[in-house]
Amino acid sequence: MPRLAVAQMECAVGDVAANLGKGVALIGEAAAQGADLVCLPECFTTGLGGPLAQLAESVPGPTSDALCQAAADGGLWVVAGMPERAGEQVYNAALVIAPESKLIARYHKCYLYLQEAEVFARGDRACVQDLGFVTAGITICYDYIFPEYMRDLVVRGARLLIHSTAWVDTEDCRRWHYPAAEAYRAQAMVRALENGVFFMSANHCGPYDAGGYLQGVGRSAIIAPWGEVLAEVETGEGVALAEVDLADIEKWSQTAAPYLHDHLNVPRPA
Q1: Can you give the pLDDT at residue 50?
Q2: So what's the pLDDT on residue 174?
Q3: Residue 201 and residue 153: Cα distance in Å, rounded?
Q4: In the annotation, is 141 catalytic?
Q5: Is residue 11 among the annotated active site residues?
């Protein structure tokens, strides 16, 4: 049975070298625990500090090369978020790297939140990728707010939703009494429950911008199709790992939650 891991970290805002070193160490920690797949947070190399357009890197490039080497050293799949430069455009990207040190896919975030669109170009295609042991839908942060988008990944065959994120709390959130950490967890559980698939999300903790306005809420987790939190890093930095039985997806559907089957097979009202 595959072992899934999420890595949670506190970003040294704008310091690519420091963050890359930390990310590689977390990949090594996940590998030491026997993980087959580890996910790192959104834009883990930069945070939202400094000139993102200048910090963004081409792929292949130094960061993707280091991640490929870490995947090979640990013998595991790696999904990691970073700002990617492609010609004149900068994208909020997630890289999918195979254990044999090969970049097999990259996803450009489709749903850009508020001022993100001032920095990043919008992605124009979803990413559903065969990882050998499971077909995965690759998502970034704000994407998972949109249930139709997430459901489409599952309709396309994803049985694991991988979510690289920087879910944060802010003064504005607190002013509106928005429970950032609880909402982040609740939305993750709903995405797993409504689709009947496994869901994993890797988040930041601590400051995510130079001024400390954005504060990562932690709570990176792996969640079962029935909503159970199988493993989590509640606060601070670290790795959480869960061994999952992918056959449980169909067993859970047959026992209690035939949502996807009914969605695909029940005629839509006229």
Answers
A1: 67
A2: 96
A3: 16
A4: yes
A5: no
Q: Which domains does the chain have, with CATH numbers?
A: 3-265 (3.60.110.10)
Name, in order, each residue with C-beta under 8 angstroms of 128's C-beta and a sequence gap of 6 or more: 135, 136, 137, 138, 153, 156, 157, 158
> What is the model's pLDDT at position 261?
87
- Judge whether 209 and 47 are in contact, CB under 8 Å: yes
Kindly give, in sequence order, each residue whose CB lies less than 8 Å from that of residue 211, ignoring residues fewer than 6 positions away: none
Active site (annotated) includes residue 102: no
Where do we find the tokens 């707010």? 145
Whether 78 and 126 have beta carbons less than 8 Å apart is answered as no
Distance CA 110, CA 90 (A): 13
Task: Give tens-digit pLDDT for 206-217.
Answer: 999 988 899 999
Write down the catalytic residue from 110, 141, 205, 232.
141
What residue has token string 């909503």? 227
Three-class SS of residue 75? coil
* pTM for the model: 0.96
Catalytic residue among 11, 29, 42, 57: 42
Positions in the chain short of pLDDT 70: 49-50
CB-CB neighbours of 18 under 10 Å: 13
Cis, peptide link before residue 60, omega less than 30° from 0: yes
> Which of 39, 109, 205, 232 does the annotation list as catalytic?
109
* Residue 222 · residue 191 · CB < 8 Å: no
